[in-house]
């Protein structure tokens, strides 16, 4: 068997001092708080995956503008290794009638204090780490990513 990490994408989306997060119920668990995030799918670029995941999980159209970090970690709960690309950018539209992905309870805006207070229900430690990296000004140009279709 060939080992391969799971490639995921996430978005740190801030407007007026609040961050767009999703309340979700991962398989067989209680509600968790996460950035809009998900897996890279066949025949899409990492940027396309990020925009798609934000739309599917929040109903918001999202334009990634910078890469804020790449995170390599292995989950203690399932032993899966993830390679997560996190972006920041801006919302370009909203469809309030859009049905959200299975498992997503709702998408909501949270202050930094609210996010810190809810760390016990973060899906992973990366939720806070990605926000901290965004706040630290981590910002890498998108042309660092090359996509060949």
Task: Report what the structure shows.
The protein is built from three helices and eight strands, in the order βββββαβββαα. With 149 residues, it is α+β, with helices and mostly antiparallel strands. Strand 6 and strand 7 form a beta hairpin. The longest helix is centred in the middle third of the chain and has 13 residues, at 46-58. The chain starts with 5 loop residues before the first strand and ends in a 14-residue tail after the last helix. The model has no long low-confidence stretch (mean pLDDT 96).
Key traits:
about 150 residues, about 20% helix, alpha+beta, four-stranded mixed β-sheet
Secondary-structure element pattern, one letter each: EEEEEHEEEHH
Number of strands: 8
Secondary-structure-derived class: alpha+beta
Strand content: 35-45%
Overall pLDDT level = 96
- Net shape: globular
Major beta sheet summary: 4 strands, mixed
Tell me the strand order in the biggest sheet. 5-1-7-6
Q: What radius of gyration results from the CA coordinates?
A: 15 Å
- The count of helical stretches stands at 3
Query: What percent of residues adopt helix (DSSP H or I)?
Result: 10-25%
Segments where pLDDT lies below 50 for 5+ residues? none
Give the termini separation: 26 Å
In short:
The protein is of the alpha+beta class and 149 residues long.
